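Design a sequence for this backbone.
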């Protein structure tokens, strides 16, 4: 138990009575406020008020591009919350309140000029925060609320109020840089949550695992020279003009603190499990984090309009299980998941449900009706060219050469 956990005996900034990591009252006198409930969860209807307007996909409409609802619209998130609610899972989670991050907190990562620009635009009709990052009236407050919600999850986990936490936030954050929005990300939710853990909570080593199908370029860039933060991104190779190649390893004092696993299009469960087994987990073990923060994107789904991967909700469940196990082994179970991409309003909710079920250890019995479309595809197995990418990523990160796919060469059970 850390000092932060040991000290957590009174009401905290998140407004919940604190317990230690085992769910017992830290001061030994009061009963646990949430007996048996160990997973925190943030959702707020304010996240639906971020207006990305009309677009063509995520591109500005115009010319041959007839306007349509922007790809990053409220539906997938709202419907994810609905499924978590009607399935009964919500009743088994500890609700963590949302809050707006302050201007000073946003300054941890973002430049004052950028924040002033978004603040001013948000008071009017919005605009473009950066490449493919539309925002509307009031979006500054909504985006700041996404950041503050991740910070609240970090606090709740560090205080031992909950053991793990999921922040179902919008807009996403992992593409945003210090002075610009990118790819629908206005503020850098995860990077700011991590910086909060470092600056406000005194942690010295935090790991980020980015399982969104797009490279976590913003998070990587922000911490590229910072040895206190390990960033690991598993993503579709050469996608959306983002880099994330294996030779991007950090710079200066941060050399070695960036790890990239670019996987070829068409990768499925076997490739992802191999990448987690042979790169992600060994890199986490070497780094020995005090906290793991996950950019939880679900756009590597077979049903996502923004990628060419073929994961189903079963794979997302297994990936979360691997990360939870790593957190249990390395950092007293402390893990926070922050929602990123996932753009199928129909299918994404089932993947989010599976992830939060796994995180909380609660099974609702809800079956994913989409899974049978893809589960038995032979391409879900680890294929030779995918294994080559996993080996290349491990070697580039100075990790041991993977001898074979766990569970048998190319068995898809790594
Ligand atoms: Zn994405």
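Sequence:
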């Amino acid at each position: 138990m850390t000092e932060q956990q040991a000290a957590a005996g009174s009401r905290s900034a998140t407004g919940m009575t604190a317990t230690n990591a085992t769910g017992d009252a830290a001061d030994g006198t009061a009963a646990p406020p949430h007996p048996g409930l160990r997973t925190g969860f943030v959702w707020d209807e304010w996240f639906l008020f971020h207006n990305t307007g009309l677009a063509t996909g995520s591109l500005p409409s115009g010319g041959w591009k007839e306007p349509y609802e922007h790809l990053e619209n409220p539906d997938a998130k709202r419907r994810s919350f609905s499924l978590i609610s009607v399935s009964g899972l919500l009743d088994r989670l500890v609700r963590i309140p949302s809050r707006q991050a302050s201007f000073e907190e946003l300054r941890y990562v973002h430049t004052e000029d950028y924040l002033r620009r978004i603040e001013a635009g948000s008071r009017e009709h919005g605009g473009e925060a950066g490449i493919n990052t539309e925002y509307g009236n009031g979006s500054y407050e909504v985006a700041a609320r996404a950041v503050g919600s991740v910070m609240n999850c970090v606090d709740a986990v560090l205080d031992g109020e909950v053991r793990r936490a999921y922040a179902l936030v919008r807009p996403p954050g992992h593409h945003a840089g210090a002075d610009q929005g990118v790819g629908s990300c206005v503020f850098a939710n995860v990077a700011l949550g991590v910086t909060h853990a470092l600056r406000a909570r005194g942690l010295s080593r935090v790991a980020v695992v980015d399982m969104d199908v797009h490279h976590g370029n913003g998070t990587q860039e922000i911490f590229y020279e910072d040895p206190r933060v390990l960033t690991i991104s598993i993503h579709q190779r050469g996608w959306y003009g983002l880099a994330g190649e294996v030779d991007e390893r950090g710079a200066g004092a941060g050399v070695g603190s960036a790890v990239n696993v670019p996987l070829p299009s068409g990768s499925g469960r076997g490739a992802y499990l191999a990448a987690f087994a042979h790169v992600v987990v060994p890199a986490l073990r070497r780094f020995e984090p005090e906290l793991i923060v996950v950019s939880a994107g679900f756009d590597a789904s077979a049903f996502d309009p923004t990628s060419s991967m073929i994961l189903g909700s079963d794979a997302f469940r297994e990936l979360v299980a691997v990360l939870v196990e790593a957190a249990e082994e390395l950092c007293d179970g402390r893990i926070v998941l922050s929602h990123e991409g996932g753009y199928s309003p129909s299918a994404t909710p089932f993947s989010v449900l599976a992830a939060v079920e796994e995180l909380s250890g609660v099974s609702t019995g809800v079956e994913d009706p989409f899974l049978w479309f893809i589960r038995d595809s032979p391409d879900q197995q680890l294929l030779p060219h995918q294994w080559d990418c996993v080996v290349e990523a491990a070697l580039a990160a100075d990790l041991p050469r993977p001898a074979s796919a766990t569970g048998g060469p190319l068995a898809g059970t790594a």
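The pocket of zinc ion is lined by residues 212-214, 297, 299, 340-341 (CB under 6 Å).
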